[in-house]
Amino acid sequence: MKVKKYQAASMPEVMKKVRAELGPQAVILQSKTVYSRGILGLFKKKNIEVVAATEGAATPVSETPDTKRSVVQGKPALAMSHELKSEMNDMKKMIKELQNSTASAALYPEELQPAIEQLTRQGITKELIDQTASHLFEKWHIEKASATAKQIKEWTLLYLKSCLPDWKADQKHNRKYTYLLGPTGVGKTTTIAKLASKQVLESNQKVAFITTDTYRIAAIEQLKTYSGLLNAPMKVAYSMDDMNQCIEEFRVIDAVFIDTAGRNYLDNQYVADLRPLIGQKPAESAHFLVLSATAKEEDLHIIIQNFSSVKIDGFIFTKVDETRTKGTLINLMYLYNKPVPFISNGQNVPEDLLGFSTEQLVKYVFKDWEI
User: Fold this and answer.
1) Do residue 151 and residue 291 come from a single domain?
2) Are residues 276 and 323 in the same domain?
3) Strand 285-292 and strand 27-35: pairing?
4) Is 161:362 a contact under the CB 8 Å cutoff?
5) How many helices (H) and strands (E) does the chain have?
6) How far apart are CA 56 and CA 334, in angstroms?
7) Residue 213 maps to which CATH number?
8) What residues make up the domain containing 123?
């Protein structure tokens, strides 16, 4: 490996020097701002210093296509394939070691910086940023550093999609009972009305409501209003026996939506209290944990972990329109391997409930990424 230090007045200038001497395959190991001594400590000049490296002999950018062909002429295609594979494996190992000791962005070429910066701005977890950046660098290297900004964006979104679970078609159907779980104040009752409305309007199905939220009279009255608008029956379950009776009464209904009590689920005792009320008809039930996109990610981790003893089929995020940083959605899908079939981005019923595939969700999170 050839390693060398370069300085220039700006990052573009220093990158030109790196490419001119080490070629487009060079890897940036470290970058920092340095200052010259100046005169009597005054008039210091600011420079960008980078440490760059390349495997083997340097390949100047002035090398012509004819020169490149003469270098590889006569080598079997299979041998070149093995050589490239070995080179990429060595590169991945080197990048992984360097990621543990320096900032991710400093490792990669200037062309990949906008993608890494976009992931960082959206609050994507460092682990996923490192994986994505490593993947982008591999693609960039294979393309001989000729990828456009649009291509790099497409690579980024496709790779993120590949890291996340999807709400498959077989999960969308044959789920008669839909339970919404989650902490107080996240908008479960409004979300359940949106889900039921979509079922009525799009599938022309008969729906019914059950609520176990006996702690808030306002929640019961709110659900009654929605049930009246949809001409849907509604029952309140105060106990296990009530729940069983409600399910029996609604056996001929197409889809039953169960609204559970919002509690402080940072305390896992509340989860234990909830568990007996949500165990009926497991094969026909979908359980969604409703979370606010504006909540602290640290708190959401605790809530999700406290729900680990409960079957959770996916997350539904509310208040997505109230935050500009949406990386939390991606992070939680990635870390807990749970899909996000719906997000709520407003109070209107049912318009402000968006049903997404994972690919559509990733594009939505990064919709402000302009090329």
Assistant:
1) no
2) yes
3) unpaired
4) yes
5) 14, 11
6) 37
7) 3.40.50.300
8) 107-163
Q: Are residues 173 and 282 in the same domain?
A: yes
pLDDT in tens, 34-79: 766 554 444 456 777 777 777 655 444 444 444 444 444 444 444 4
28 phi/psi in degrees, rounded to 5? -85, 115
Band of residue 218 on the pLDDT scale cut at 50, 70, 90: confident
- Spatial CB neighbours of 332, under 8 Å, sequence gap ≥ 6: 291, 297, 300, 301, 304, 315, 338
pLDDT in tens, 187-207: 999 999 999 999 999 888 999
Do 124 and 41 belong together in one domain?
Answer: no
- Among residues 365, 356, 367, 369, which one has the least CA distance to residue 165? 356
188/315 same-domain check = yes
d(CA 246, CA 256): 10
Instruction: Give me the DSSP letters along 99-124.
Output: HTTS-GGGGS-GGGHHHHHHHHHTT-
Using only the alpha carbons of the chain, give its radius of gyration: 27
Q: What is the pLDDT of residues 167-182, one digit of tens each?
A: 865 555 568 999 999 9
**Comparing C-alpha atoms, which of 263, 257, 260 is closest to residue 286?**
257
Would you say residue 156 has pLDDT above 90?
yes
Count structural domains, the chain.
3
CA pair distance 156, 151, nearest whole angstrom? 9
The verdict on 213 and 151 lying in the same domain is: no
The answer as to whether 157 is a domain residue is yes
Which pairs count as long-range contacts for 38-45, CB under 8 Å and 24+ apart, including other chains?
Answer: 45/9
Tens-place pLDDT, residues 277-322: 888 888 899 999 999 999 999 999 999 998 888 889 999 999 999 9
Residue 238 has pLDDT above 70, yes or no: yes
Answer yes or no: do 240 and 270 share one domain: yes
* Residues 132 and 193 reside in one and the same domain: no
pLDDT over threshold 80, residue 103: no
Q: Which two tokens stand for residue 134?
A: 């490593």
Which H or E run includes 163?
Answer: none
Strands, E assignment, 212-313: 234-236, 255-259, 285-292
CB contact at 8 A, 129 and 160: no
E strand map for the chain: 2-8, 27-35, 46-54, 177-181, 207-211, 234-236, 255-259, 285-292, 314-318, 342-344, 353-355
